Amino acid sequence: MIECFEKANLKRSIIAGVLLLIATFLVAVGVAEISFPETILTFTDQDWLLDIWPKAYRYNIHVGVGAVAIACALIVPALKIQKDFSTRALETLCRIGIGGMFIFASIFKIQDPHQFATLVAQYQFFSALHLDFVNNFFSLVYPQFEFWFGLAMIVSPFVKESAFAIFWMFVSFIIALAWALWNDLGITCGCFELQDGNAHDKAEAWTSLIRDLILIWPTLWLAFRKNKSIIGIWKKDNKEA
Q: For the whole model, what pTM was predicted?
């Protein structure tokens, strides 16, 4: 039995687990508020709130960032209460959450590479470098990277390699979104759904950029974890044996 589940530590592990569950819920709410309005996890677009405060929907990013900040604040006492359990739980949650997100994000692009190529072209990044021919190749290959590295993050023991690859994907997303904002491009992100690519404001680019700037940090943390399967995370370390 690993140390955090021994009788002497069980109570502390349960308390830490409750804090981490609340933090996980808040992160989910935060990401939903920032990037996925009008979903089951969002509050600022609820009819009852809009009846009380009609302009609440304008503050979805503020609420989202606030929820993530509170979640981070809850992680600190969880680590202090039971560091061993909290670290294992955080790694498990981050791997499932980030890996699952990349798998989900890849499906629409794999199903419709032509539409994804249209969305990539709207960034005008490759055209600015006179590399228009890269656009179609990128649109075919990149979703495959998202899918397979996302899957590897969850089911394989190679967390360092998977997280490192996903980290650089986040870097590329951030560069592309910053490029779009710098050049005053109204874009459709194309991260999780394939729309028509005819957006006329920068709101979606900002929300996507904020989301990626948040999620890149747990990904970087995973890149420095030991290579273990998710099941292996919960096995007793040699030093505990």
A: 0.84
